[in-house]
Amino acid sequence: MDAPVLKNKRRKKSRSRTQVSDSEPETSSPAVPSSPKKPQQAQDSSIDSMTEAEVTAAFTQFYARQTTQEFAEDLDRVRRAEDFREVEGVEMLITALRQGASLFSIDEMRRVVRAEREKERARAGG
């Protein structure tokens, strides 16, 4: 008699909703009527004129907000763990978030900050 072979159950990983693509879409058809280019160019130039420190600060804030939303349940489980020390644990989580943000190049950060500003502007105008 052979013993039954048990298969490991694997959880399917969910895709992140915060992925940023390095490439532009080949064809673009705006869902909204196009607006004059001057405000867009002014917005782009204001982001392009930001210092690296300003872009990094804006990106780090965005990255921390997005990651805490994406991993909210996991972070709650970590905080509720018996061996979690309130002060040291929170400092460790904040440091980990900052280290994650530092993995991006300044160009990638600038691109994300620009896209986030465009979304904010669209929400305010629409």
TrEMBL record:
Task: Tell me the ranges covered by the Ribosome-assembly protein 3 C-terminal domain, including all copies.
Answer: 59-105
**Annotated keywords:** Nucleus, Ribonucleoprotein, Ribosome biogenesis
- Bias (Basic residues) ranges: 7-16
* Record GO biological process: ribosomal large subunit assembly
A single Gene Ontology CC term: nucleolus
Signal sequence region: none
Composition bias (Polar residues) maps to: 40-49
Location of this chain's protein in the cell: Nucleus, Nucleolus
Question: Where is this chain primarily localised?
Answer: nucleus
Compositional bias of kind Low complexity: 28-39
- Transmembrane region positions? none
The highest taxon in the source lineage is: Eukaryota
Functional summary from the UniProt entry: Required for efficient biogenesis of the 60S ribosomal subunit.
The record's family statement is: Belongs to the RSA3 family.
What's the protein called, per UniProt? Ribosome assembly protein 3
